[in-house]
Amino acid sequence: xxxxxxxxxxxxxxxxxxxxxxxxxxxxxxxxxxxxxxxxxxxxxxxxxxxxxxxxxxxxxxxxxxxxxxxxxxxxxxxxxxxxxxxxxxxxxxxxxxxxxxxxxxxxxxxxxxxxxxxxxxxxxxxxxxxxxxxxxxxxxxxxxxxxxxxxxxxxxxxxxxxxxxxxxxxxxxxxxxxxxxxxxxx
Length: 187
Hints:
The protein is an alpha+beta fold. The longest helix is centred in the last third of the chain and has 18 residues, at 166-183. The relative contact order is 0.14. It has helices spanning 113-125, 166-183; strands at residues 52-53, 57-58, 71-75, 78-81, 84-87, 90-93, 98-110, 137-150, 153-160.
């Protein structure tokens, strides 16, 4: 058949095989012998799981306590009670919680059907019927998504938008929750 070509990565000057398993003696080795700048380094061991809050500070290691006092406020299925955030995903510490809201609603404005009927009827009797076409009806559809993350947990809820000012109301509630997250006393 064909002759074997010499291995260019061996340190054997003849480039021929030597003892198997000994580097540089005929065994094929990819890349440089030692990792250096610019070459991939071996991966370090994965750090132990440590949940964080806010700016990367470790969470306090205290057990989840039952809520104290009455419910402070509620957004969808997220409730703040005492120093806890209660969600269907589980309880979270209030201190250092990250709150976000996204507006997925839209407001449409259109001429209602009864205005079109009145404009046609009154146009036949007098030309003032066209003024009925100035009537507008606003309808808001969609949801506001509220997200909270704390103590290594995450929960999201959707609040239906009932009018054009629902997002402003949710943001005022969210800003209140953010202020509670910053001012709650730690244990």
